[in-house]
Amino acid sequence: MSEKIEGKPADGGGDRTNPFLQFLTSLEAVPGQIIEGMNRQTTDEDHKAAIKAYGDAFRAQIQGLSAYLRDEHSRLSPQAQAEVSRVVTMSGSSALFSGVATLSRNLSSTTARLSVSGIIAEIKKIIKVLLGIFHPVVAPWLDGIIALINEILHDLFGIGSPALASTLSRMHQDYMHEQILLARLNRERAAFSEIGKNDFGSEGI
């Protein structure tokens, strides 16, 4: 009898040809893959209870984010939807999701947990690029929800390993610092571009 794999992507007709829908299907499968991997590496009932609690929260976050992305995508023009598909195709997200699925089979390994955490951080960057296509300015509340994903994931991965939890916390702080610097750079670029436009306009007067 074949083993049931929780969180396996469903075969949707449109998902097979639309890169963005494939992206969402793979994203929605991630919590199940990780939760199953975490449950497989422990027999401790307290650990299993904690995995369920954090896992349910992680699953709900991903499902909510996926639904939001799907709804926003449906409101785009055909040209903008084509741009989203190009971004997803160029991002290498398929390889990232494949890495999560493979590594989640052995989450008893610290290296595997750290690697999955790093891959999720990269997937979050792709999501933020997509959100930039949907809206020029990402709402602060949405930024907060995206930041929570890694916090919940780190709590999940840290179960039974306080030292790993500390390492993941430092990784998250580094990620947030990187995002702050990136946002600052983007603002400076936008301001510089606006100054250039104004200067060009004044020369034409």
Q: What secondary-structure arrangement, pairings included, does this model have?
A:
Elements: H1 19-40, H2 45-74, H3 78-91, H4 93-103, H5 110-134, H6 140-157, H7 162-203
Percent helix among the residues?
Answer: over 70%
Round the mean pLDDT to the nearest integer and report it: 81
List SSEs in N-to-C order: HHHHHHH
User: Largest beta sheet, briefly?
Assistant: none
Please count the helical segments.
Answer: 7
- Got a strand count? 0
Alpha carbon gyration radius: 20 Å
Whole-number total of structural domains: 1
- Overall morphology: elongated
Q: Which structural class do the helices and strands define?
A: mainly alpha
Low-confidence segments, given as residue ranges, are 1-14
Give the N-to-C terminal Cα separation: 78 Å
Strand content: under 5%
What does this structure look like?
With 205 residues, the chain is an all-alpha fold. It has one domain. 79% of the residues lie in helices and 0% in strands. The chain contains seven helices and no strands. It has helices spanning 19-40, 45-74, 78-91, 93-103, 110-134, 140-157, 162-203. Helix 2 (45-74) packs antiparallel against helix 6. The longest helix has 42 residues, at 162-203. The model is unreliable at 1-14 (pLDDT under 50).
